[in-house]
Design a protein that fits this description.
By secondary structure, the chain is mainly beta. It is 7% helix and 34% strand. The strands form 3 sheets. Strands 2, 6, 7, 10, 11 and 12 form a 6-stranded mixed β-sheet that branches. A 5-stranded mixed β-sheet has the order 5-4-13-8-9. The protein is globular and about 40 Å long. Residues 35-179 form the Oxidoreductase molybdopterin-binding domain.
Length: 199
Amino acid sequence: MGIISRGFGGRRRDSAPDLPPGQYLTHDFPVLSAGPTPRIPPNSWNFTITTETGAEHTWDWAAFTALPAEEVTRDIHCVTKWSKLGTTWKGVALDTLFEEVETAADFVMAHSAGGYTTNVPLDDLLDGKAWIAYEFDGEPLRPEHGGPARLLIPHLYFWKSAKWVRGLRMMHEDEPGFWESAGYHMYGDPWSEQRYHGD
């Protein structure tokens, strides 16, 4: 399943009770990718929300980083069974981006550089649940972790937090993205161990 670097040494859940079932605690930050790591200069990055009617709302890097930002500390959980607790990010809440977006759609497809996609219910992006993050631990987000900006949805398995995110497309019906089409769960709740279709 893609490229993995920096081993998954960690402790089992019984010594870290805040972990979802089946997860291991890690103190490093493993890198997993479905392909090569894009190198995107911030001045060539933009982000677009496209509604179900085709209306587009686009921010370039300067406009995006001028938006109100939040620093949040959250636990993250990968479907490959590692968890990292207390990670600190800075980014723009999806609530802020959707303030000017009119939509009647219930679902979103996130699109990333390199063609990666993942589907998410709109409700899981709003009400303080998700961000477009561009800093990690007080530093600009490194390319291997999705920089210059990635989707951050910490309450779902981390494949939903699309790296190198470039936009969101609104949908009336749920559709599978990249990993979902390959057999991963359509939703991906770590506390319910929704790793694969049928879980």
